[in-house]
Design brief:
Helix content: 25-40%
Strand content: 15-25%
Radius of gyration: 68 Å
Structural class: alpha+beta
Largest sheet: 6 strands, antiparallel
Number of strands: 11
Strand order of the largest sheet: 1-2-3-6-10-9
Length: 322
């Protein structure tokens, strides 16, 4: 891998690591409440469906909302409201153990001095969740309720609490057929803190392991790319030249020179002799008609030719005169 690829790869992975450390804590800022200041004060939103009231809020140490359902037996559930924890802050309790604000439950139509069973259920509760009750009229306002923690399917936990009209859990302190029940779910701080630390510790190493695996895989990919680029290209084998066997053709023999035909020469000499004899015979007054004599001027053939030439010329002159 070249130096350029290494620099680019290291820059990308360093950016991812910084993003993991910077943005992950911001996604779960509520978790820091377990280590000091109460950063958030969730305000529940309440909805009613018949005899059940549901509170929706974002608890401490979570970034998503949870649902908590309230129902009552032995009375009528009139209203459920949220109560700021600062109003119930006492030295005997620590706010770090409460993941939400307190709830004020108003119950009516209760027989005077009778008990009403309050059921608080949610998937956010655990098997170790307790419900703390606050009554400012008592010398020790905070107390741990005798609640039953029942596990149901789909990770639902039910907290069943019996509240007596005019009893210690009734904040108005009178047996008048109305109950004001104030309290909130509580979990152990150290269990939550240790669980949070374990999750963060394991999560950091998990993120680093994923990043390291990605770096190794990407490094292998770049190495393969470099090897394929640097691999020498095998030369293409040249085609084998096959020489065709030379076919030797038989040499043609030179044509023999034509042999002069003696028969044709004899014929030509005989013709010449016959013409000469003919010309000599046609000349009646020539005493010099012998072999080899000059007959060019006195032959009848020459005279006849001259006569024809003169006749043709005479015809031409006659045409011009006309």
């Amino acid at each position: 891998m070249t130096k350029k690829y290494r620099e680019i790869l290291s820059a990308v992975w360093m950016t991812l690591i910084l993003c993991a450390f910077v943005f992950c804590p911001k996604m779960n800022t509520a978790a820091w409440a377990a280590f000091g200041e109460d950063i958030e004060k969730p305000k529940p939103e309440f909805t009613r469906e018949g005899d059940r009231i549901t509170a929706k809020y974002i608890p401490r140490a979570k970034s998503t909302s949870v649902l908590v359902h309230f129902t009552v037996e032995g009375g009528k559930l009139i209203e459920v409201k949220g109560m700021d924890f600062e109003k119930a802050d006492r030295p005997e309790v620590d706010i770090k153990n409460f993941k939400s604000a307190l709830f004020t439950i108003e119950i009516g139509e209760v027989k005077t001095g009778a008990e009403a069973t309050v059921t608080i259920s949610s998937q956010f509760f655990t098997s170790s969740t307790q419900y703390y009750v606050f009554n400012e009229r008592l010398p020790k306002p905070w107390m741990v309720s005798d609640c039953q923690n029942i596990s149901l399917p789909d990770r639902v936990q039910d907290l069943l609490i019996k509240v007596k009209d005019g009893g210690p859990y009734d904040s108005d302190g009178e047996a008048n057929g109305r109950i004001f029940f104030v309290g909130g779910p509580r979990d152990s701080f150290w269990g939550y803190a240790l669980g949070t630390l374990f999750i963060r510790f394991f999560g950091i190493f998990l993120v680093l392991g994923i990043l390291m695996t990605g770096m190794l895989v990407s490094g292998r990919i770049f190495q393969r790319i470099e090897k394929t680029k640097a691999a020498p290209v095998s030369p293409v084998p040249e085609p084998v030249k096959t020489e065709m066997p030379k076919t030797e053709f038989p040499k043609s023999e030179p044509e023999p020179e034509p042999v002069p035909d003696t028969a044709e020469e004899e014929t030509a000499a005989a013709i010449a002799m016959a013409l000469h004899l003919h010309l000599c015979a046609s000349k009646s007054s020539s005493p010099h008609c012998e072999m080899g004599a000059d007959v060019s001027d006195s032959s009848a053939w020459a005279q006849e030719g001259r006569v024809r030439m003169m006749g043709e010329r005479l015809q031409m002159y006659q045409r011009k005169d006309r």
